[in-house]
Amino acid sequence: MSDTPPRGRPVLGDEELLALARRLPEPSLTDERKEEMRTAFLSSVRGLRSEARVRAPGVGERRRLLLLGTAVAASAAAALAGWHIGKSRRQPAAAIPATVVAVEHTPKGSFVPAPLPSPVRGTAPPTAPDRPASASRPRRVALAPHKSVGDLGDSDSVEVAFARGWSSLRSGDFNTAAQWFARVTAGQNNTLAEDALFWQGVALDRAGRFAIARQVVTDFLARHPDSDRRGEASVILGWLFVRSGEFSAAHELFEGALDDPAERVRNSAHAGLLAAEKQSRDAASAVPIGP
Amino acid sequence: MNSKTPKAAHGKLIALRRVEGVPSEMSDEALLVACALGDSAALGALYDRLTPHLWRFLSRMTGARVPELEDLVQATFIAVHQSAPSYRGTASVRTWVYAIASNVTRRYLRDEVRRRSAFDRLARIPPVPADQPDESLQQQQLVHRMRNALSALPHDLRVILVMCDLEGIAGRDAAEVLAIPQGTLYRRVHEARIALRALVEEGEL
Q1: Nearest beta carbon to residue A21 from set B66, B70, B146
Q2: I need a surface site. Which of A121, A191, A284, B126 has the fewest CB within 10 A?
Q3: Shared domain check, B184 and B101
Q4: Do residues B156 and B109 share a domain?
Q5: Does A9 touch chain B (CB under 8 A)?
Q6: Chain B contact present for A55, CB below 8 A
Q7: Higher per-residue pLDDT: B183 or A84
């Protein structure tokens, strides 16, 4: 008979097997962490609801019709203007996407939307740093009523996706915002990819999806080492490291952001350094001494 | 014989009036119906009540670490919130939530993020000395082997094993939410145990 297991191998009955499986240790869920997750979840849900109100038939019908009417009228005006310009420049008016009412390009610099509420642990938001006036004027994209991420056709521009991501972010629907920004970053050779990757990280962070947020922000720093947003991204990543207890990595990131031109980023980096040092000391004192 | 067992009421749960009551005193089912009506307090209460169970379930299903587990809990509850109006009352709320969580983990396990974090986690596992006769070390090895074995089970078998054998969900409820016949469920439970035992007894450290 070859039923005997090899020497040193366990022989387990059903009960022993399941008892062992039940005893597997699981990561601890502290009350503080649970509360943070709860807050992040409920804020995501509020965002989803506000989006649903815009989309629900009957509820926001007047608003939808008004927006639709505005979009149609503006599209017609844009088409007419395009026809006039096209006559002189030989450009077809149909090149303007139907959902885009007006797009204003900045000559140089990154997209800087309005500031958001504080992102992490009550510190100053590293989201809208002080920038030169020429670079702070955003592209303005007015949109038809809200679409879900899956509705965006291939012909729609990354600018539309970016604007939808941004409006979702503003309305608190962080998961949808992250998906829109991911669409932008997936596209090749577009000038918004850098900004989109940054805002994707911010959206994921606020959605409470800290693990993915961490990867996206890390990816941002790796891909765009010379970005204007390097300091902000470092601070966000630093706070994520503080959260996961990796204090030395956090310390390094905060130090790198201390000379950022934006005051709020510097303040957040200072606060992060203090928090990392304090929590590092607390953690060290909590370690039991002995074998 | 007239010993018919009462059949569970199937059909969509519709609240005839706004659900009232202190959330902490309401049943899971009442909370879920209230969630479907847009009651934030009920949603918060349901979150508080189910999170510890869901945390353990997801940990057993994926073996993930804290940040990934947090993401999975959030993704599951977002799906629960969105699907609340479609809850039909054929199984307990906890079982229904587990079924949603199992779908979330299926997607998660396919994800590249999962693979990356797995490498990361493997890199952090301290090597266990193999030749020491110490009993606690042998126990550690066994736990380690069990964790690997559970991760190596096919998803369908793992869901059933975790639900029925580890979380104590009744077979009828589990079959209902997983949309499989009860006979199939019991057969898979049996297969899962055999596969798990084989993996634990013969698996590599």
Answers
A1: B146
A2: B126
A3: no
A4: no
A5: yes
A6: no
A7: B183
ipTM above 0.85, yes or no: no
Q: Which of B65, B73, B202 sits opposite A9 (nearest CB)?
A: B202
Is there a single domain that holds both residue B138 and residue B108? no
CB contact under 8 A, A17 and B200: yes
pLDDT digits (tens, 9 = 90+) for A43-74: 777 666 655 554 544 444 555 555 556 556 66
For residue B170, being part of any structural domain is answered with: yes
Q: What's the number of domains chain B is made of?
A: 2
Q: What is the pLDDT of residue A158?
A: 76
Residues of A in contact with B73 (CB under 8 A): 37
**Residue A145 scores a pLDDT above 80:** no
Q: Does B44 touch chain A (CB under 8 A)?
A: yes
The domains of chain A, with CATH numbers, are 36-284 (1.25.40.10)
Closest in B65, B73, B161 to A37, CB measured: B73
Structural domain harbouring B166: 130-205
- Give the count of Cβ contacts less than 8 A between chain A and B: 107
* pLDDT, average across residues B53-64: 91
Could you tell me the pLDDT band of residue B174, with boundaries at 50, 70 and 90? very high
Both B49 and B110 in a single domain? yes
Please state the pTM of the whole predicted model.
Answer: 0.51
* Distance, CA of B28 to CA of B41 (rounded, Å): 13
Q: Do A9 and B197 touch (CB under 8 A)?
A: no
- Select, from the ranges A95-99, B46-50, B66-70, the one with the highest average predicted confidence (pLDDT): B46-50
Q: What are the tens digits of pLDDT across the range A228-246?
A: 888 999 999 999 988 888 8
Residue B9 lies in a domain: no
Q: Is B172 on the interface with A (CB under 8 A)?
A: no
Tokens of residue B5, six digits: 């067992």
Whether B104 and B39 share a structural domain: yes
Average confidence score pLDDT of chain B: 79
